[in-house]
Design brief:
The protein is an alpha/beta fold. It contains eight helices and eight strands. The chain has an eight-stranded parallel β-sheet. The radius of gyration is 16 Å and the shape is globular. The structure holds D-xylitol-5-phosphate (DX5) and zinc ion. Zinc ion binds near residues 35, 68, 177 and 197.
Amino acid sequence: MKAKKILAPSILSADFRNLSQQIRYVELGGADWIHCDIMDGKFVPNISFGPMIVSAVRRITNLFIDVHLMIKEPDNFLEDFAKAGANCISVHQEEVVHLHRTITKIHELNCKAGVVVNPATPLNTLENILEYVDLVLIMSVNPGFGGQTFIESTLKKIKQLKKIRSENKLDFLIEVDGGIDKKNIKSISNSGCDVFVAGSSIFNSDNISAATIELKNIIVAQD
Ligand code: DX5
Ligand code: ZN
């Protein structure tokens, strides 16, 4: 069954002076998920926010909360983010030694489980975990900052992952994160992306709701 296309604004680029209003704007624009980029300054060279902000997001919106852990030793924080209200928790393949155990733990916490690969990490590192995950997040920028340029070779990687998924009759969602905007989102969708993370192209625009609607219209036209 063809999965519907999902737009997941990343609040990393939101104006935190009024997070509630910023989330309302993307809701009005038809956002499906809220993507929370968690950074610890160790796994990535930046610090963002933690479970406290995720629980604030939970109290602001009923949208699906998609937590992307760009942190060292994410196992230590799974419960905190699940308790904070995460609906999906994704961990980096590069960081987790016992990935099957971590994915199992995320499911035991009643969350969907995702695995993330950086631009230079080959998909074959995921070969033995794909059947257990709900989502694979392909980074299209080097993690740590919003506002970066989409790495074009990601398109090939998305197509490769889509082929692996159909050959193995699996049904995880393919998510892409980083540098997505109205100019490249159509080709990203055509390559096989299901979930689109966009931060600066939405929250840095003059009209957040309009920017959200514009991206949403492009991807639903691909449905
Ligand atoms: C990088 C972050 C960003 C963010 C999206 O670590 O994960 O990719 O979500 O940011 P933009 O859309 O501004 O590239
Ligand atoms: Zn992210």
